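Chapter summary example: a protein plus PBG.
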Amino acid sequence: MAFPENRPRRLRANPLIRAMVRETHLRTENLIHPMFVTDGQGVRNPVSSMPEVFQLSIDEALKEVEEVAGLAIPMVNLFGVPGKKDLTGEIGCAEDGLIPRAIRAIKKAFPQVLVMTDVCLCDWLTHGHCGLVRGDVVLNDETLDVLSRMAVAHARAGVDMVSPSDMMDGRIGAIRSALDHAGFGHTPIMAYSAKFASGFYGPFREAAQSTPQFGDRSGYQMDPANGREALKEVLLDVAESADIVMVKPALAYLDIIWRVRREVNIPVAAYNVSGEYAMLWAAHQNGWMDLDRTMMESLTAIKRAGADMILTYFARRAARLLNQR
Ligand code: PBG
């Protein structure tokens, strides 16, 4: 039946009917709050391209986790911004290192908040690549051992979930087996499965001080042109026992989220990355777009595309709005 019998506007007439027919509901439980943890005491360095995002020492990070807990956001994700880096990544594997100390402090003070950690070498290596380097080659298999030991160090500190973001081949299987052998068979892995070599990571690299000193990440992160290959990556990670698969970035890759959602029967996460955050803020600060509105629209679109959960620097802002409703 067509117009005039069919009038879609009937179901848009008022807020009550619109709420009744709403298909997608963003909820606080869907949000993961990323944080940048650094050495020292009382450190709270603003990230210039990301308003309201800071590099935080552990004591300051605890204050932010308290806010996260108050908003009922279930999980934080920790990135390390260490004062010292080297060429081996061993600083990131130390059992009493920055991230293990942060995990212990957060779990002790806020046991109700889940802690996930980034497992990758770029924050810990002087040259900023995600794996060990020989000449100008980013080594794959040699990197797996370091990543595995990093994951185990986090598990020993009590992490609730690890999240490898390096894009080395075979890392999910390697980390799974290392965790299992160390007695952490219950620790889940969220795999950055379809992670694209994206310009939208620009502000993150300022926040994490992880810009590659030579070359770029196209030798391990995916070509933005490739959709079928994203499914291949996802299925490999599922076969290697990933518990959750992730698509990253989110907004320019909604089709990938949708295709992945149809392909797998495990939860799908999406990373609403730093550049997506910075764009909306910049437009807002110029008076060009309304921040809360474009934020909720973006997050809802990511969920509508098929993401079960969203890593987003907007987590607190969105949770405040959701909790008010
Ligand atoms: C590095 C990593 C990156 C992000 C998460 N982990 C940056 C990169 O690959 O260069 C980006 C997150 C963001 O932009 O918000 N392993």
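Key point: The chain has eleven helices and twelve strands.
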